[in-house]
Amino acid sequence: MTTVSRQCNQDRGSARATPPAVSGTTRRKRRGPSLTAHGEPMVWLIGGGLAICSCMILALLALVVFNGAATFWPRAIVELTIADGQVVMGPVARGEYFEAGAPAEADVVDDPASEAAPAPAAASPAPDDELVTEEHAEAGVLGLVRRDLIQVGNRELFGTPFQWVSRASVESERLPQWAIFVERRTWGPMVGTPAAFIIDGEEVASTPAEVWAMFEQHHPAVRQRHAQRRVLERVDSGGVNDREEAARLNLVQTRLRYGTDSDAYAAAMQELEEVRAWAQQRHAEIREQIDLLNDQNDRYRLVTDTSRVEAVEQESVAWTQATPTLQADLPTPGGDFARWRVVDGSLSIRIEAEPEAEDNGEATLILAAHDDGAGTLVQTAGSARLVSGVLDRRGNRVTLEVDADLPANLPVLASYDMQQQRELGLDQIVRAYPANQLTLTRKAGIYLDRWWEFLTERPREANTEGGVLPPIVGTVTMTLLMCFLVVPFGVLAALYLREYAKAGPIVSAVRIAVNNLAGVPSIVFGVFGLGFFCYIVGDFIDSGPTHAAPNYQWITALAALVLVTLVAAGATMLRLRATDDRQWSVRMLGYVTTGLWIVVAGVVLWLVIRNPFFGGFFPAQAAEGTPVFNKGGVLWASLTLALLTLPVVIVATEEALAAVPGSMREGSYACGASKWQTIRRIVLPRAMPGIMTGMILAMARGAGEVAPLMLVGAVTMAQELPVSGSAPFLHLDRSFMHLGFHIYDVGFQSPDSEGAKPMVYTTTLLLIGIIAMLNVSAFFLRTRLRRRFAEAQF
Amino acid sequence: MNAQITDGHATVSGKLDAIARGEAVDSATHPALADEPCVLDIERFNLWYAQVQALYDVTMRIARGKVTALIGPSGCGKSTLLRSVNRLNDLIDIATTTGQMYLSGDPIYHPAVDVIELRKRMGMVFQKSNPFPMSIYENVVYSLRIDGERKRSVLDAVCEKSLRAAALWDEVKDRLRESGLSLSGGQQQRLCIARAIAAEPEVLLMDEPCSALDPLATSKIEDLIQELKGDYSVLIVTHNMQQASRVSDYTAFMYLGRLIEYGPTVDMFTKPQLRETEDYITGRFG
After folding, report:
1. Counting CB atoms within 10 angstroms of each CB, which of A43, A156, A304, A738 has the fewest?
2. CB A664 to CB B133 under 8 A?
3. Residue A42 phi/psi, 5° resolution?
4. Best interface-test mutation with A: which of B142, B207, B213, B216 has the largest number of A CBs within 10 A?
5. A&B contacts, CB < 8 Å
6. What interface predicted TM-score (ipTM) does this complex get?
7. What is the tens place of the pLDDT at every residue in A695-752?
8. Cα A410 to the chain's mean position, in Å?
9. Radius of gyration (Cα) for chain B, nearest Å?
10. Alpha helices for A434-468 (secondary structure H)
């Protein structure tokens, strides 16, 4: 071996000196550095793994951050005219490319009418969406077609606030100068143009610019009055209600305890009467104030023109000369009147009818039929009778009986455009802006205003709009409460495990159990929380023990408890006196003491749960079927999550305790400190950064947990927050809203999932932001504390 | 190896062999020690870590108000003996002992002894400085704090006195509120000494207090030990022969858990009774 290496060295030496011919041979001998020896492939493998992981995480974060951050940015309103004459107006929510010719979508193939239809513009009837037809027509040419989702708004008029428009079918596109986007308190956003501004029933402005100026002038005051009204309703009126409810519950409680014949009942009844009278008066006062505000607000009304040409309903209708009937699925006629028009035929029917015309009712319909091709009017007036169906906004099938002179078997393409003006009280408007005239600053202002609303308001419209203040408050309250519950228990458990317990099978078993606890599916904790906290403990708190012990038995047990406690205390004193742990008798005394205390604990527990003298804290509510703690609530949710996050705290604390150098403990002992003094003064402060880390990890884990909360107190809509300005300020019994559950509810349980999408993204962004903030603060806290304990280097 | 040494040392040279064979040997204690008043009396002290015996029949008397150095090769039981004095070895479950020690006449190893009270009568300085994660001030008055002393004036007085005694006062008097860990290594060690003497201990135990320090800091600590002498009785473990000769009045040489020779430092370093001691001191073995 040594000779070989020496040989190599010689070669290497000669290689430098000799001509290339020789060096060629030597180069072969000393092979270049081996790839595996350098570990280069492994570096690539490891680096690649890291890159993939970070890419996935970053992509997820980027998706959420981008969508969440972009949601509130005001977008321009486009007006698209589609080939068949339909006009769609609204901001583009999103776009996508799709394969137009995909057979999966061609549910119209079976329809014989579609094969018969010759012209591409007329195309075949598609029951759900006419635009699909267009896309089919383009499919052969383009392959991929872009389509945009237009937020057309006006849900009460159009039914669906979103509409897909295929780019291939768009004939023209423009940005109407005076298109305004109106966010309303109900019915979602409205898209239209300002038509008039009404004060006290009089039209004071009629051109868009004037109307808009009036709106901007009056809206802030109206909005402020609305906020005042909300305060009156919530705080003042709520306070009165609370007092009334308290008096009523007091009456129920008195009845339960003393019966209806007692003096106490009469007194309570009288008190309730007084409170009721007072409440009535107070309510009247508040009502008066609210009415005043409402009256002031009702003076101002904005009229918006929301006319548009509605989706064309294609129906090949068989008309009979005798009783010409037109049968069609009306999309959404509504508003003041709707006009039907035959696009590719010769008939235009103008229907003037109340949208809520009754079933089979008589409604006067005026027909205006004209020949589209030549433009000559065939028939200007006539009458039709609504035969069946309801002309309502749901667009039921409607059969019209037309007494006009119509050609038989006329193929009809019917469309209607809705020319209507909506009058809207300014009170109903949260925010409105002319989307196509905004400067960047204005846009930024609206953007920030929307974020502010999002963070400080309550949700409206089944959580799909408005703010998320209740979920934020609920999440924060629950998480903090959980922290207060889990940290003491976790730290105590870890202290015992690490500092006091002697290593052995029991400690190992406990440790394994704790670690396993971290792996239990969170829903199991939810089930446990519901079964134990809500049903058992909650029932006990509300209405006392279900199976109370007989009085004599309980009192006997109490006496026994006193006796056992005295004995246990005596044994403990003896045990503390004994200093030599090695003696057999001392050890036995120790076991006996422990056993006695366990017995004491058991008896105390028995005494509590079988106490015949305890009737619960809220018997009245329980009797009425409106339990206080015998249901999900923020306290039970916090306790459940505390159980869930206990392992995190215990493991982190144990590690932190183990990291405290032994020299510090020895130094403390050498100073004459006892074990507890050493732990309290040296070990715990030193381990504090680690404990903090565990706490914040637990907070992050708890704040992001949803599944167990669905069972123990999180609700989709909570009228009241778990914290309030009225005593007791923290309402442990109240159900609460939670950001994670909010995401689930808005994203997957709301009727308008498309409209709720922005809320899902923003709420997710918020939740991620909160958790990231917790983690970052943990990081800084840890570095700060670490620096305090860092050893100086010299 | 040492068998063929001159007559005067013949009995002695057999000692290491005897130890190697596991036989009991007597230690050579100089008669000068008998005259000294004794603060700590160790009598036939044995210590086992589980089955392994670490100290064999150690019997020695520590002079009051003097500095006593423990020297010997690594693993000879110096630190173990030191930690046995304030019963820090109690923290090790597997350690068992026989024999007795007396602190000013009070037994140390007795079931009735309150270990905490006992430790308060001794101060200890460790090999590696271990200031607590708290301010300099709190570090110094720690032993008073755990006694429940709350009077500001008392604490202040003790703090200043201890820091002055530890020759640290001038360096830290303006930053008593800063973390004890912000000091340099030598200052930290002096802080630990201040902490150890704050409770007025009868014995100051030092476990290689200078082994992690540079020469300058070492000389400061050594000067400090010299100054503490008289007021405090110091028992110091050291690996450094020069240090032992510089700071101590008495020196004990230990080997493999046994006390080999114990006497006044001057005698030990100039005319030791045993050949082994001379060999060790001059660096011929160990």
Report:
1. A43
2. yes
3. -65, -40
4. B142
5. 89
6. 0.89
7. 888 888 888 889 999 999 888 888 788 888 777 788 888 889 999 999 888 888 877 7
8. 52
9. 20
10. 440-456
